[in-house]
Amino acid sequence: MAFSEIMPFLSLYIGSLGDYSKSQVTMYAGLVYAADFFVSAISAPLWGMIADKKGRKLMLLRASFGTAIAMGLMGFATTVWQLVALRALQGVFAGYISNAQALVASQTPRKHSGAALSTLMTGVTSGMLLGPVIGGILAQLFSIRLTFFITAFLLLLTFVLSWIFVQEKFKPVPAKPASEKSLNPLAAFPKPKLILVLLTSTLIVQFGNISISPIISLYVKELMHNVGPITVVAGIIAALPGISNIFASPRLGRYGDKHGSGKVLIFGYIFATVMYLPQGFVHSVWMLGILRFMIGISDGALFPEIQTLLTKNSPIELTSTVFSWNQSFQAIGNMMGSLLGGWIAGIFNYNAVFISTAMLMLINLAMIWWLVPELRHTKLRPA
User: In whole angstroms, what is the distance from residue 219 CA to residue 238 CA?
Assistant: First the structure.
């Protein structure tokens, strides 16, 4: 909820920091979004190795406290470049959700990991649902700056709750003898090609999703002809995928555990392609809202099932490592999506971003279909 409070309005906040044209705002928004993800992509593998040696709970405390400080400082920013620097600082401390996923995955029986991770994701999507609505109302009543301070408070609260209530039965990963170490980081995985395809899929899915985030409030503003409570409506539109995701994600996770996560994943790509494409051709916020609501179903099929397949096909002692890689690929997708999403919107228009996202989902589906055909034929056994 803390992160989603400010994400839909970051582009509007940038517009308030200077006298910028439409194309400048979209391109600056892409840069601001990308700064966090660029740094996160570099730092995530390091944090993953430390988590496997020191524990995942420590990483939860590090991430929540560090991002609280960065978020609070963003409320004092007076220039775009200060905002870029603080977003980069946030990237250094990123990783609360990925470490929570690694903690749950490492302490849940593998045959139930799909249901467990999908249930955990309802916390993420519930926050995605509540954050933009609360942030939109606060931005309308007070100011966008206030949402940064509330975000910092929520993250400090998360730090305290994690410190007191999260328990972890952690066993450090023993160091391998030098003679057993391999230069190939995928050598320890029974299905390295599958792991690489899943990590690439994370990048592509996140690329498509995040390319829309910098422009969604601007798209709503255009559809509303700059009249009415734009921040409130933008917050509601941004939250709608979370509503359907809350109901769809646990059910799809249980179905995947019984019938094969690969089948759920393929359904997610087909459904996402069908739902993203018409978003580029809508003429009202009502139609956009309906289609954004449906996107929550595809998100409930894609993100949890990729993580479930990574969990089921990774050695348990490398759980944090593989989730840190997943975070890095996600961060790279975030960075590329932010930059290219703003660039596409600035050169063409907002609708081009939705059309390009639909094409990306189709390309990712083709990649999985041809490179790992076992996903559509069999139920993969846990490693």
Answer: 11
